[in-house]
């Protein structure tokens, strides 16, 4: 694994989710099945769905909180599987529902 450096990615990088499948255990169907999307640098997206549809799971896979069972998550073409979680989290701002955002420039 490599450590991401501050200049490793464009700011922000292009995020590609390619055919990702993730499940919490093998006794239930996967929460994400064949999920793919591309977020271009600077693009803002909204992930919308009903309770339990996988919105938070997708965010956690992109943030490398969970590792996908199949498929890949890439930042500027670099697989997140090759980057340490700590160095990836240093590259992004990950805000979950209910998180208070500080009242100062980030």
Can you describe this structure?
- With 106 residues, the protein is α+β, with helices and mostly antiparallel strands.
- 12% of the residues lie in helices and 23% in strands.
- The chain is built from two helices and four strands, in the order E-E-H-E-E-H.
- It has helices spanning 55-62, 85-89, and strands at residues 15-22, 32-39, 70-75, 78-79.
- Strands 2-1-3-4 form a four-stranded antiparallel β-sheet.
- Strand 3 (70-75) and strand 4 form a beta hairpin.
- The two termini are 28 Å apart.
Compact summary:
12% of the residues lie in helices and 23% in strands.
Quaternary structure type: single chain
The parts where pLDDT drops under 50 for at least 5 residues are none
Report how far the terminal alpha carbons are from each other: 28 Å
Count of DSSP-assigned helices: 2
Order of helices and strands: EEHEEH
Overall geometric form: globular
Biggest beta sheet summary: 4 strands, antiparallel
* β-strand amount: 15-25%
What's the Cα radius of gyration?
A: 14 Å
Overall number of strands: 4
Helix content: 10-25%
Class of secondary structure makeup: alpha+beta
Give the overall average pLDDT: 85
The order of strands across the largest sheet is 2-1-3-4
What key phrases describe this protein's structure?
23% strand, four-stranded antiparallel β-sheet, 106 residues
Outline the secondary-structure elements.
Blueprint: E1 15-22, E2 32-39, H1 55-62, E3 70-75, E4 78-79, H2 85-89
Antiparallel strand pairs: 1-2, 1-3, 3-4
């Amino acid at each position: 694994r490599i450590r991401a450096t501050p200049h490793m990615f464009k700011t922000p990088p292009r995020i590609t989710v390619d055919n990702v499948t993730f499940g919490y255990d093998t006794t239930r169907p996967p929460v994400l099945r064949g999920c793919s999307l591309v977020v271009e640098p600077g693009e803002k997206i909204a992930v919308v769905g009903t309770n339990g549809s996988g919105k938070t799971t997708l965010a956690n896979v992109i943030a490398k909180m969970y590792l996908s069972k199949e498929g890949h998550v890439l930042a500027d073409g670099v697989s997140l599987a090759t980057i340490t979680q700590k160095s990836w989290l240093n590259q992004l701002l990950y805000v979950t529902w209910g998180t208070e955002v500080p009242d100062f420039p980030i």
